[in-house]
Amino acid sequence: MVFNKKKFISFFIKNGGITFFDKSAIAKYSGKPSTIYFNWRTVAEDVYTLEKCADYIIPFVQDHKINPDCFVGVPEGATKLAIITQFKWAKKPGRKIHKISYVRGNLKRHGVPKDRNFLGIPEGKVVLLEDIVYKGGGILDTIKKLKKVNTKPHAIIVLSDRTNKKSKQRLLKILSKEKIKFYSLTQEREVVEEAVRILKPSEKMINKLKARGRL
What we know:
Rossmann fold; 215 residues; globular; 4-stranded parallel β-sheet; alpha/beta
């Protein structure tokens, strides 16, 4: 099985992954207004679409010869996706590690120390999954939590990369020092281009996108 980027982008768009706002902008995670909204929540709230998403991640991993032992989701957006991906991956022939690891979004202030940030400590070669990245704050925070239990990810896999040039360079510099590889299934521009073709936004919106370098 080979990862099909075009089908993956279409899957994202057709499951409510991108919305264009003609009249009023919507706030991004950073708080800045945007006329484009990327959203993996529609996919994440349905078991069928979550499994379909995992079915794209697994061939991507195989194509890039990443060979993880444990998928872990950056909370909260990629938590459920990582669990389903790990479940499917662990059933493949030859897999020796079947750990399910859940990263807590907020620190648990009671109980044993190993359970403060995790439900199940990840083992082996760990791959972090993230749904959307802008600056990488969630990724870096999760890496810190992993370090507290004496592990770190081998690689980061992002579904939608929305970083700008400056943010991307900063993130890659930090990850490079940690010897952590970074992969993204899609870049913002290629998703926007396909969304314009499929969703057919207004001419006004298309002109806005062109003026801002999105097309």
